[in-house]
User: What shape does this take?
Amino acid sequence: QVQLAESGGGLVQPGGSLRLSCAASGSITTRLYAWDWYRQAPGKQRELVARISSGGSTSYADSVKGRFTISRDNAKNTVYLEMNSLKPEDTAVYYCKMGNDWGQGTQVSVSS
Assistant: This one.
């Protein structure tokens, strides 16, 4: 049984920053898994925004490249998404994913 617990979402002004965390619990070895961050805005498809592989390689959607950074701490069974220079179009529910397991989602709202 694997459970992913997300935190760090909230309301931020344009240009601000947030750091999302997703901690995995259960009988797992997190270093064996790729971690993803997805987001979904109302009426939109869920989209992949960042990925970190089991080997530490990272990739980003063009819309967030240069602004978001994904990282992982295997000792803490946690993945992070550092979001800088936030824009209103970043507003969405953000989901972490480890392998085929999903977190519950956390709301990020960027507004004045």
Notes: The first strand starts at residue 2 and ends at 7. The CA atoms of residues 95 and 105 lie 4 Å apart.
